[in-house]
Amino acid sequence: MRIIKAYNLEEGEADKVDRSSGDYFRRNMQLVHTTGAFFPLMLFFTNLSMAVVLYVGGRQTITGAITAGDFVAFVNYLGLLTWPMMAMGWVINLIQRGRASLDRIGTILATPREIREPEKPRLLPEEPLSLSFRSVSFSYPRTKEYALREVSFSVAPGESLGLVGPPGSGKSTLLHLVSRLYDPDQGSVLLGNEDLRKLDLWQLRRLVTNVPQEPFLFSGTIRENITFGDEDVSEKELEKAARKAALWETIRSLQHGLETVVGERGVILSGGQKQRVALARGFLYGGHVLLLDDPVSQVDSQTASSILNNLWLETANRTIVIVSHRLSAVRSADRILVLDQGIVVEEGTHEELLRLEGYYARTWHMQQLEEEIHAL
Ligand code: ADP
Ligand code: MG
Question: For ligand 1, which residues put their CB under 6 angstroms from it?
Fold first, then answer.
């Protein structure tokens, strides 16, 4: 509604609503016409048949072809038949409607799962895990272009990987593959030296925590949004996670604190606040592999650096993959990959990449300059 108002699109949108309501109205009127005609017609034919029976049967009784008893019996039997006949019409109608609905449900139920678990999934040890890609190529369903092409790298347990590159270069896609939201077309993704396709999906998703680029909040309280409604989370743990995500002060400034209702029916949080709620979830549930998709894109640089400091303190028992367009966020990562159009074009530590004088070095210098200008 805000966008429509801001761009003066009310008339066009009202037309669209008018058109669909008109269509809906017409179809309903058709239905009413049909059902409206149905009952009178039915009664008409029942009574017509009665008239025919009276006429023909009456004459035959008069001429003595049948007895009066036969005639009365016939009329009575016919009356008994009328209602079952009508009921049959109803039932056929109901069955047809039901079939249409059943067909729709059937299509959903018959859709095969794209992500399958093996018969006997392997369980990973609950400890920091290594993560590697072996010449992984992937394109989204119904697209021709590769979102990732021949991507290979590996991260040791407890190490961190930074991912940078222009928009659309495949950074988020790479993270989706680690959570096994999709399977690669070629190559394999390995966690703790096991192919993801051999693992227990439930354990995988518990070990791998993904803080997405566009955080989604359920309508509910901030507490429920951070804990996913888990009532076993202690106040202390919750506060710790919120503090790490630089969210605690914000929560305290709200009138209802943690119980503030957000989402469709409550307070609308700003982009940066939503992002920090998602981060707090990540800090609270962080499994042994933590994936962060541009986690500080919508907060100011001071808050960003405090969040990142907290994050780097976590690396001791976690493998971290962090995407960021702000290079200072990935600077301390043990290894950094630069993606372009799904291909790894540069790879190394911060210092090594600066020496390459490629995309990373150029972007780094530009962002340093921007920060200096801001500081003035
Ligand atoms: P980044 O996170 O680096 O900005 P993405 O991984 O989101 O890039 O996207 C990589 C490429 O894949 C882009 O060309 C994008 O258009 C395409 N893409 C992303 N998501 C989908 C999707 N769900 N379906 C089809 N194509 C997609
Ligand atoms: Mg992305």
Answer: 140, 143, 147, 165, 167-173
